[in-house]
Specification:
The protein has 17 helices and 13 strands. α10 links the parallel β4 (195-202) and β5 (231-238). The protein is of the alpha/beta class. The two termini are 35 Å apart. It catalyses: thymidine + phosphate = 2-deoxy-alpha-D-ribose 1-phosphate + thymine; 2'-deoxyuridine + phosphate = 2-deoxy-alpha-D-ribose 1-phosphate + uracil; uridine + phosphate = alpha-D-ribose 1-phosphate + uracil. Keywords: Glycosyltransferase, Transferase. Its EC number is 2.4.2.2.
Amino acid sequence: MRMYDIIEKKRDGLPLKSEEISFFVKNYTEGNIPDYQASALLMAIFFNKLNDEETLHLTKAMVESGDTVDLSYINGIKVDKHSTGGVGDTTTLVLGPMVASCGVPFVKMSGRGLGHTGGTLDKLESISGFNVNLSKEDFMNNVNDINIAICSQTANITPADKKLYSLRDVTATVDNLSLIASSIMSKKLAIKSDAIVLDVKVGSGAFMKDLSHAKELARLMVNIGNKFGRKTVAIVTNMDEPLGNAIGNALEVKEAIETLQGNGPKDLYELCMTLGTKLLILAERVDNEAEARKLLEESINSKKAYNKLLEMVEEQGGDVKYIQNPNLLPKTKYVMEIKSKTSGFVRSINAEEIGKCVLSLGAGRETIDSVIDLGAGVILNKKVDDEVQIGETLAFIHTEDLDKGKEVENRILDIYKIGEKNIDGKTLIFDEISN
């Protein structure tokens, strides 16, 4: 089998066989195929696309390129959740404890943030002593003991995806739905949970800007998950404005704690309820959505979910005092108020631009080696459709650098679009896709 023939076949718009895809993935991962030939194939895929069967084969080959995590040692139906990334996306820190407190094993191997989207591991490391580097044995023991563990991925999960993504990133071939779907799902499927809920973000702060493409990506990923024998559901959700009010690592941890205590932002709470409902049904914990929601609401009202977060933090070496007293979480030297210069209603808040502001404050990574400021970020005091008067506070900037803070203040004043009230109310959930 020759790489030249595979490139030529896809260049001419013909479907690739499973053995051709496996040959490419295996040999490129092992260094036997040069970057220029892999780039040629990726560009041919970008223009001529992969069908559903090819996408499934590509995902399988990437899963098989490295280690998998067998979770059969864990009792019960194991559930996992994945978000395609957004701004202020604190759902894992709220959703995990909620689901676990309802008796369902929640297994999550997460990544770090890069660019304007935050990473769950960075947020958790705002808690002094919290260990994200669990061994497989500790990971599984923790889930058996308390129904939850959140940690970093092992180094050798889907090495093909890591290598291919790096190449896609520099060859302008990232934006292909089949390549995106296989990249995401290979990492999820390498961790052998029984059921997966996908939170597919769409809007200004999401990777997918267009609703029709977001739905197609959701369909592709659900198809892959189901074909692999994992019960998979995708929820397509709004990321035109940041989720919740907090954007920044320690600030989001504090907001997650408030949400678990029943005092969080409505949109974050509702999204966690929606995702949690699906997870409880997939885990066969309940028979219908009404029962699921009732259990989840009780987990908040009774503080069971909050107590589950305390258990997880303690089990993973963290100092629970940081949860009991969130004022101990990392802080910045300065907190600046942004006052509105006009009256009206908030028409829009571009989530990506807010994310970039937070990145410039040091709360995110420009490169994988960047050192982040765990206390930096922005708290939104006004969201879309809120009424604003001149002089009212739009947002708070948490920063170590007043000059950077002033620059971000001017940018945020431009990002907030204030005028007549929107005719249509905002939508949080656009669609659910399960087959």
